[in-house]
Amino acid sequence: MTADANRPPVLRLESVRKTFGDSVVLRDVDLAVPAHTVTVLIGASGSGKSTLLRCANLLEEIDDGAIFLDGDEITDPRVDPDSVRRRIGVVFQAYNLFPHMTVLDNITLAPRRVHKTARKEAEERARELLARLGLKEKAAEYPDRLSGGQQQRVAIVRALAGQPKLLLLDEITAALDPELVGEVLNVVRDLKEQGMTMVIATHEMGFAREVADQVCFLDGGVVLERGTPKQVFGAPQQERTQQFLRRIVEAGRL
Amino acid sequence: MTVPDLSDEDMYRPSARRIERERHKRTRARRATAIATISTVVTAAVLFLVVTGSPGWPATKKAFFSAHYARMALPKVIDGLWLNIRLMVICGAIILVLGMLIAVTRTLRGPVFFPLRALATAYVDFFRGLPLIICLLMVVFGVPALRLQGVTVNPVILGGTALVLTYSAYVAEVFRAGIETVHPSQRAAARSLGLSGPQTMRFVVLPQAVRRVVPPLLNDLVSLQKDTGLVSIGGAVDAVHAADIIVGKYFNYTPYVVAGLVFVALTIPMTRFTDWITARMYRRQSQGGTV
């Protein structure tokens, strides 16, 4: 990390505010995600984790504040959102694979149509990624014929195929059973090994503790507490954080 | 949603950044509107000049756009239109019900239903392929020729029957397409709750299917509305026939234009209404998002 000290963070949020109608979902949120680090967002459902990720990918328009990617403001209305999204990979909770395309076509769609890679090259790279994630034989299958864990790994491959600088993972294991959770989280661990910059919203506290460089606890649209996993999980300062973690422990999830 | 500890809502003031951003968006919206307006005006002006500047315009104007004949034709056309509207509403209702029944029949599974399924398939194959005009001629002139006791010879009822026969085959296919787009997981979820096959169809599959096919259904209904004019071949006086009579008498085509415009005017409110319904449905069922 020290080598990157002078570089701007890959993702930075500055006083971001987002409302839906009357309810304020994010208020005055600041966040910096340095290159090759993993930031984990924790917090109850509805605390604004997903909205934060959707805002970072410009799927939602923020009301106030600014978001920077590699030091450039992306929330400026003059910026072309497609060019921003090209640099960011997103994995959704419900996979969101295209059911009418094979696994291979799902993965090569963006490289071919957006990044204008030749079909052969795109498919080669897709197969290589699939093999790395243990899905080599599934290239010709349709998504609905795969298990949830396999689908989610395909979704990760699809997000990686565009060679993004930043990966946003939105509760990607929430729809999976514990056995399948393992296979997906292993993939994320490997990505961290390889130095991928990631922002992860999750309820898997054990995983968060292990993989995070920075943990942010969101509550009522505010980053209430942030720090290393050791600080946040070991010695939380805020009462709300303590409460949240206590409930998690009671539920047997830490 | 958790309630924040302190209400800082009263303290929120838009930042200079937000104000600047909104100003930029307003400017952009104004520019887009200006470009759209100018291009529309220019296109309209060019069209107007090309049409009115054409060598045959004075004669065409007299033959197709005469105010005198328009005034004369309008009341008669409107009178005739009442028949079209009644036919459209009554046939439309029957077609929707019949089409739905045929579609559901075609999706029934199991060998028990084979005869029904085959019948429904044959019906759709036959009446979708048969040209409407031939169907109309067969029913309107063929049925009275049989001289059956107690069977009507009223051209409006017979014409309406022919419309129902043809259009229910089209509409059945639209419904069936809708039924097939409902993901199998929905059926699985419903059956897992203990709903029976017909209940699953009624409460889970059909409501989703129908919503998805509202635009193509409307397409068929508008098409039906125009084809109600074809019952005039049996002698019924509808809007088109009423216009026809005046055209034949004075050799002026303005009544056709009037009848055409009246039909257009009739479909526009219906289209806006379905647009509104679909938009409201979409708003209710999905979360917001800019893409």
Could you walk me through the main structural features you see in this protein, from its secondary elements to its overall organization?
- The complex is a heterodimer of chains A (254) and B (291).
- Chain A has 254 residues and is α/β, with parallel strands linked by helices.
- Chain A has a domain at 98-164.
- Chain A is 36% helix and 24% strand.
- In chain A, the strands form two sheets. In chain A, strands 6-7-8-3-9-10 form a six-stranded mixed β-sheet, sandwiched between helices. In chain A, strands 2-1-4-5 form a four-stranded antiparallel β-sheet, covered by helices on one side.
- Chain B has one domain (66-282): MetI-like (MetI-like fold, Orthogonal Bundle), CATH 1.10.3720.10.
- Chain B contains eleven helices and no strands.
- Chain B has helices at 16-53, 57-64, 67-107, 114-129, 132-145, 155-181, 184-192, 197-212, 214-227, 239-250, 254-285.
- In chain B, helix 3 (67-107) packs across helix 11 and helix 6 packs antiparallel against helix 9.
- The longest helix of chain B is centred in the first third of the chain and has 41 residues, at 67-107.
- Chain B is flat, with a radius of gyration of 27 Å.
- In chain B, 25% of the residues are buried.
- At the A-B interface, strand 1, strand 2 and strand 4 of A face helix 1 of B.
Quick structural summary:
Chain A contains 9 helices and 10 strands.
